[in-house]
Design brief:
Length: 420
């Protein structure tokens, strides 16, 4: 009965929630589409702004809810630095208030897009303010740690040793007691010795038994063969490789908690063969104002020859940071990121694992030939709307019609086919 009432309760709650959301949606529609705005906010604003907490930029919920001058907000979001440069007093005041951290311009968003974002900020913040919407704390589920397992194993081994020792002690004590009593006679001594000799003879018989020796040797051979086989397959496979990096840069914090898009730093993965590591200037977009006192951030300043007091760069003092490369295919393999990420639409995490939860990046996949091939065997390719396959179809048609097919028709004029 309890469970039925529980289900009913949950059902009515979700109906209420959906009705509420629908009503909110229609209310918001008058000005902007909050659902669309949420998408824009997540990709472009969430790395610096939260609705209810200060981040790199101020908490937007209270500001945008109280400031109803949407025209000014729109021009700020399109290009805040232009407003500051034009001497708009409100813009200059805000810019000063946040230690002159410039907000990047967003000319790519239309007025309607910005209206959607503002609608999302207002409705999203109103939602957060409702007391029953407080998120329940996330309880992290953790399996037994290795320390616990090791400790348990140690306890078991210790208990075993103690039992053995106690057994021996009890045995010799019994012998002593019976000797004192006089119940322990020479016959007993003899009997004990006979038992010992019998045991020895049994062991000797086993050792001399050819079948048994053969069996042991066979098992030993099989075990060492399997071990060698595995070891050979693992040579040059660096799965799990996790070197210590020169700066304690955390993907968990930047890509996970702050939700900075991978593309912000590794844009190469979408356009070229190499994903590439971002230059430190990318870090400075935020770290010229964020955590300026941290010794880790000072490593960035030192590497760039940047003086945080004077806010000047001295190129003569600059020296590159030596990130330790983690993923490394041998030179005999050609691997192209954009082919997989952009054309194949494979997400980074399929190959690199949950990078957004890693404090320090490690090599998640084996990067063996078997790994590449297994994925190629099972992944279906979507050929629709793909220029590469359109060209293949065209060539196919030419062959069918008996026309001359040149290397150029097969893409032999494309820069990327001959150049890295
Ligand atoms: C790289 C960080 C960054 C990103 C990304 C960013 N902002 Fe900002 N934003 C700031 C900072 C910093 C300020 C404080 C003002 C200043 O220093 O220019 C600010 C200020 C603002 C303000 C003015 C607040 C006030 O006091 O009136 C609004 C509105 C705003 N941001 C909206 C947005 C929206 C919408 C987006 C996404 C389209 C966005 N921001 C993306 C950093 C950012
Ligand atoms: C703020 C910039 C930034 C963002 C955002 C970012 N990265 Fe990185 N990434 C770095 C830097 C710097 C390194 C080099 C240091 C290191 O290995 O931690 C790196 C290293 C890596 C490496 C290891 C490269 C090697 O040496 O083989 C992988 C894989 C990677 N990032 C994937 C991702 C993925 C996937 C995302 C998105 C979920 C992401 N990164 C988001 C800056 C960033
Ligand atoms: C979009 C803004 C942004 C970018 C880009 C960015 N960071 Fe950060 N980073 C932050 C913020 C915000 C924090 C502080 C979070 C907190 O309050 O602890 C931080 C924290 C750190 C810390 C920890 C500092 C400490 O002592 O706690 C390190 C190290 C760091 N970042 C390195 C980097 C490096 C290296 C890059 C470039 C590859 C980079 N960050 C790019 C916003 C950014
Ligand atoms: C199909 C698997 C696959 C996907 C998808 C993939 N990577 Fe990689 N990534 C690799 C391999 C393999 C290497 C090693 C390349 C080498 O050594 O030449 C690598 C290397 C890297 C490196 C080291 C520097 C470099 O350019 O070689 C970074 C950073 C990186 N990947 C980031 C990303 C990001 C970000 C994404 C998503 C946008 C992504 N990768 C998607 C397989 C993949
Ligand atoms: C997660 C799955 C996955 C993994 C892992 C993967 N690939 Fe791929 N690969 C694909 C897909 C999907 C395509 C087809 C993309 C397209 O053209 O639509 C592809 C295409 C290719 C192509 C182009 C083939 C052609 O005919 O144009 C090459 C070359 C390639 N991969 C090399 C590699 C190498 C080298 C590795 C291992 C280091 C690897 N791939 C790992 C999924 C994967
Ligand atoms: C069929 C193969 C092929 C194609 C396609 C191709 N290239 Fe080249 N490219 C070469 C070769 C080979 C060289 C070196 C010639 C030499 O050293 O004299 C070269 C040299 C160059 C150079 C001079 C590099 C230097 O350092 O001297 C540039 C720039 C260049 N190519 C750009 C392009 C661009 C842009 C495209 C696409 C529109 C392209 N290439 C397409 C084969 C090709």
């Amino acid at each position: 009965m309890r469970s039925i009432s529980l289900i009913l309760k949950q059902f009515s709650r979700s109906v209420l929630l959906i009705a509420g959301l629908a009503m909110m949606g229609s209310a918001a529609h008058a000005q902007g589409d909050a659902a669309k705005g949420k998408g824009i906010f997540t990709t472009s604003c969430a790395s610096c702004h939260k609705l209810d907490k200060n981040g790199i930029g101020p908490a937007l919920g209270p500001i945008v809810t109280s400031d109803t001058n949407d025209k000014w907000l729109t021009s700020w979001i399109h290009n805040s630095q232009a407003l500051v440069a034009a001497g708009d007093p409100k813009a200059v005041a805000i810019y000063k208030q946040y230690n002159e951290t410039p907000m990047p311009p967003f000319p790519q968003y239309s007025d309607a897009d910005v209206a959607d974002v503002l609608a999302y900020i207002r409705t999203g913040y109103a939602e957060l303010q409702k007391p029953d919407n407080a998120q329940p704390p996330v309880v992290e589920e953790k399996g037994p740690s290795t320390m616990m397992v090791l400790g348990l194993a140690l306890v078991v081994v210790l208990a075993f040793v103690i039992i053995l020792v106690l057994n021996r002690v009890v045995g010799s004590l019994e012998k002593l007691v019976s000797k004192k009593d006089g119940t322990y006679t020479e016959q007993d001594e003899l009997a004990a010795e006979v038992v010992k000799a019998e045991r020895k003879a049994k062991v000797m018989a086993l050792v001399m038994n050819k079948k048994f020796v053969f069996f042991v040797a066979l098992v030993g051979f099989i075990v060492s063969f399997i071990w060698m086989w595995i070891a050979l397959w693992r040579t040059n496979v660096h799965q799990g490789y996790q070197p210590v990096q020169p700066i304690k840069y955390s993907h968990e914090l930047h890509a996970g908690v702050m939700k900075i898009d991978c593309q912000y730093c590794h844009s190469g993965a979408y356009k070229s063969k190499n994903a590439s590591i971002p230059s430190l200037n990318v870090c400075m977009n935020c770290h010229n104002a964020v955590k300026t006192e941290s010794p880790e951030i000072h490593k960035i300043y030192d590497a760039l020859g940047y003086d945080p007091e004077k806010r000047t760069y001295d190129a003569s003092k600059a020296r590159p940071i030596q990130w330790v490369r983690i993923h490394n295919l041998p030179d005999l393999v050609y691997f192209n990121h954009s082919q997989h990420v952009k054309v194949g639409k494979i997400i980074c995490q399929d190959c690199h694992g949950p990078v957004q939860t890693m404090k320090e990046v490690y090599q998640y996949s084996p990067l063996t030939m078997k790994w590449c091939i297994q994925c190629h065997r099972r992944t279906e390719v979507n050929t629709k709307g793909n220029a590469y396959y359109d060209k293949m179809f065209a060539v196919h048609e030419m062959i069918k019609k008996g026309e001359k097919v040149t290397a150029a028709a097969m893409g032999g004029l494309e820069c990327g086919k001959c150049h890295y």
